[in-house]
Amino acid sequence: MKITDASVVVTSPGRNFVLLKVTTEDGVVGWGDATLNGRELAVASYLRDHVCPLLVGRDATRITDTWSYLYKGAYWRRGPVTMTAIAAVDVALWDVAGKLAGAPVHRLLGGAARDEVTLYGHASGATVEEALEDVAAHLDAGYRAVRVQAAVPGAEAGSYGVPPADGRVYEPASGERPAEDRWDTAAYLDFLPQLMAAVRERFGYGFALLHDAHHRLSPIEAGRLGASLEPYRLFWLEDPTPAEDQSAFRTVRQHTTTPLAVGEVFNSIWDCQQLITERLVDYVRTSVSHTGGITHLRRVFSLADLYGVRSGSHGASDLSPVSFAAALHVDLAIPNFGIQEHMGHRDPAGEVFRTGYEVADGVAHPGDAPGLGVDVDEEAAARYPYAPRYLPVNRLRDGSVHDW
Ligand code: EZ4
Ligand code: CO
Questions:
Q1: Which one, 13, 113, 170, 249, has least CB within 10 Å?
Q2: What DSSP line would sit under 311-362, residue for residue?
Q3: For residue range 136-195, what is the model confidence (pLDDT) as tens digits?
Q4: Is 331 in the pocket of ligand 1 (CB under 6 A)?
Q5: What is the domain extent for residue 61?
Q6: Which residues hold their Cβ within 5 A of ligand 2, which is an ion?
Q7: What CATH number should be reported for the domain holding residue 283?
């Protein structure tokens, strides 16, 4: 089953997405997600200029061989741009494989290992009270797991994960240059236990409570934070320290029993080998679209399973519905699934993506349509041209650039 065409679609229905379309000689179409937030066009070029020409003429059913051909064959390995491009190819080929077999991708991965995929939603607010109202809204909507973020009080202290005034979802701002945030670690470390205490006091302990520190702490600060949060029994503390320093997690671990999660910026199994084999984290949160696709993500989660580490799939809205569907198929099929992040996509994304997955009452199912179950309307996509958007840059009060 030869690939006869491979092309890239760049579209911005509310936010930027890069998609790969693979077509076979029989007219079967597979879609992959190549979106790398804030660096979209680099992946589009990597695919258009260096990968698409290599795909034409290859056998679409040889997924592992194509993965190795692109990974080993480029000589230059790993890195977010390369691995996002390989992921797009891989996911598109799994989509084709499902369509050829007339089966949903999760069936090709071994079938459903659970009935449904548990999601966690994002609650946040500019004040503690606003955040509590948002937690209430999530619990009312049926979520059994909620990530809670709130603005750190204090003059210039910035925050991660608190939406702009005009909407509920945190989005990067449009423009040629990133916005700049301010950050005060001391104020955050004092504030966060108060926020979590307020959540447990108002809503009790009958749901999973999560928080994302977004790589902003030193190992010893993260250890102190984890210890101070122990009374509130978090499901996890996400990204406590900059993710590239694996041994830093030893220090965090020595100081707290709060479960740890990390991985949304990882792009290969080598980024979490030590974390997994030394059991330094409880959840590995790599995403299907930034970690080499379904083929490589399965390898990561299989290694994690050997060491009792569970999955925690990244599901931010900068991962397109194609990625979200792919993640749900993996989530449903692997033995060591932990939890799936759910931010959803706002219109006009619904004009571009026709999705077959079901999301309701805090759980999801990828559906049983052949392949991934997501179609892309290319005419609608063309109505929303790319515009630059960037995540903010983060600075401390003295002006030093800090981790975001
Ligand atoms: O900031 O996906 O847990 N979710 C997150 C995300 C990330 C974005 C970066 O592109 O931390 O919102
Ligand atoms: Co995160």
A1: 113
A2: EEE---TTS-HHHHHHHHHHHHH-TT--EEE-----TTHHHHEEE--EEETT
A3: 999 999 999 999 999 998 756 668 888 766 554 556 777 889 999 899 999 999 999 999
A4: no
A5: 3-104
A6: 212
A7: 3.20.20.120
